[in-house]
Amino acid sequence: MQQQDSTYDAIVVGGGPAGATAAHQLALKGHRVALLDRAGRIKPCGGAVPPQLLADFDVPRSILEAEISGARMISPTARTVDMPIPDGFVGMVDRGHFDEWLRSRSATAGAERITGSFVALGESDGELIEVEYRPGKQEGASKGQTHTLRARFVVGADGAHSRVGKQSVPCAARPNTVFAYHEIVETPEHVVAGDSPIDPMRCDVIYDGKLSPDFYSWVFPHGKTLSIGTGTAVNGFSIRSAVTTLRKDLGLESAPTVRTEGAPIPMKPLKRWDDGKHVLLCGDAAGVVAPASGEGIYYAMACGEVAADSVHQALLTHSAKPLCKARSRFLRKHGKVFLVLGVMQRFWYGSDKRRERFVTMCKDPDVQKLTWDSYLHKRIVWKDPMAHLRVFFKDVAHLLGLKRATD
Ligand SMILES: Cc1cc2nc3c(=O)[nH]c(=O)nc-3n(C[C@H](O)[C@H](O)[C@H](O)COP(=O)(O)OP(=O)(O)OC[C@H]3O[C@@H](n4cnc5c(N)ncnc54)[C@H](O)[C@@H]3O)c2cc1C
User: Fold this and answer.
1) Which residue range(s) make up the domain with 384?
2) Do 253 and 218 lie in a common domain?
3) CB-based burial label for 78 (10 Å; 0-12, 13-18, 19+)
4) Cα(166)–Cα(311) distance, rounded to whole angstroms?
5) Distance CA 375, CA 51 (A)
6) Among 38, 260, 293, residue to substitute to test ligand 1 (most atoms within 8 Å of Cβ)
7) For residue 264, which of 1, 160, 224, 279 is within the disulfide window of CB 3.0 to 4.6 Å?
8) 38 CB under 6 A from ligand 1?
9) pLDDT value, residue 1
10) How far is CA 355 from the centre of its chain?
11) Does residue 52 fall inside a structural domain?
């Protein structure tokens, strides 16, 4: 039953980092925008973000739960390589708090927040398209009741396996994903006291085929809690058992568990993000997570910004053409990083022998510098092209087996 009939310039479906950023930018540009999000579920996520996110999207540093000073890479034979951050930190956000802060900011800028679940895209009269949604319980709707909104454009930011995408962009039906699962535990006293292999100021990244046959496992500290997780695209691999094993190995089996949860992580940008008429996908819905690292928050926000600008152009020109440029605009900036990380994941995560070599490579000061520059600042510094050449030759030497796995 239809109860409400409102017309917007744009409706953003999904209020995660991508959708909240898109709604915020569209509202700032003066458009009438609705942000539709189903409330009630905190996004499963390790919550690691680079400081560049704070700078690029005007997010206050006070939102961080913790600031991490380095990473430890751990090989299948338990060799460790420490990668201290020379000048900076990795931020840790609590997604319940962080996402809500982004949604409220969009509302302050003028976006209309609507709580409910997207159901379907409806009829289009050429100018406007319908969006049907089921209102949240708090909006006082009776069971099964749906409402319809109308807009000139719809931004699908409803995450991996996007419902908006499935109904509008054919290649969104089968995204390439890994499934990631983590357990959030209370940080035990002995970890805080330094009597543990875990350091509350360090992210541990574990490369071990028994914990993940094709991705990695992690321990990310968040102050009062730790995220302990793993990911894989292999059907039938038990990621719950892998996390149980990891917790046991780390002496964290009896740490009180706060939450256990999992979700897919897209591993490849979709070939197309728009339907040529009304709809543009962004964030996980468009597949923009960095391969190999699984870093998606920064890229979701960057994609939300590009999506908002494309919709803005489309509204100004009364044409859907700017929508189809969003993908190439985003990939022009981030495509090379995605390509390199994709090749890296396919090759180095392929077997324990290769994982062992990969961890060894991380000892190299040039590799560490390149890794931190590209992660923390989202840029590759070309000031020292010789360093890139050295990384390239060392990489090739490992690829060809000219160096021992532990060299
Ligand atoms: C276990 C795990 C660990 C991760 N760790 C990290 C990490 O440490 N660092 C990092 O950068 N990235 C990490 N990621 C990836 C990161 O979480 C995502 O890439 C990022 O959240 C994508 O943002 P988004 O806004 O595109 O989608 P999402 O964050 O998934 O947001 C989608 C939004 O859409 C809403 N929604 C969905 N369906 C509907 C519907 N039908 N109607 C209305 N609303 C709907 C949801 O409520 C949600 O608010 C991790 C992912 C997983 C699964």
Assistant:
1) 348-399
2) yes
3) exposed
4) 20
5) 9
6) 38
7) 160
8) yes
9) 39
10) 23
11) no
Q: 297 CB under 6 A from ligand 1?
A: yes
Q: Tens digit of pLDDT for each residue in 322-361?
A: 999 999 999 999 999 899 889 888 888 989 999 999 999 9
CB 72 within 8 A of CB 82: yes
405 in a structural domain: no
* ∠ CA 314-316-320, rounded to 5°: 20
Q: Looking at the domain assignment, is residue 406 inside a domain? A: no
| Residue 343 is assigned to a structural domain of this protein | no
Instruction: Tell me which residue of 371, 317, 329 sits closest to 348, measured CA to CA.
Output: 371
Whole-model pTM above 0.90?
Answer: yes
Is the domain of 9 the same as that of 108? yes
Q: Is the CB of 205 under 6 A from ligand 1?
A: no
Torsions phi, psi for 388 (to 5 deg) = -65, -40
> By alpha-carbon position, which residue is closest to atom 30 of ligand 1?
159
Number of separate domains in the chain: 3
- Could you tell me if 254 and 354 lie in one domain? no
pLDDT in tens, 260-297: 999 999 999 999 999 999 999 999 999 999 999 999 99
What is the rounded CA–CA span in Å between residue 295 and residue 285? 14
CB 308 within 8 A of CB 21: yes
CATH code at 119?
Answer: 3.50.50.60
Please name the residues in contact with 399: beta carbons below 8 A apart, sequence gap of 6 or more.
Answer: 347
Residue 49 CA to ligand 1 centre (angstroms): 13
Do 203 and 247 have their domain in common? yes
Are 147 and 193 found together in one domain? no
> Can you tell me which residue has the tokens 């190439």?
328
The Å distance, Cα 16 to ligand 1 centre, comes to 6
Please give the pLDDT value at position 316. Answer: 98
Does residue 102 share a domain with residue 13?
yes
Whether residue 34 is found in the same domain as residue 75: no
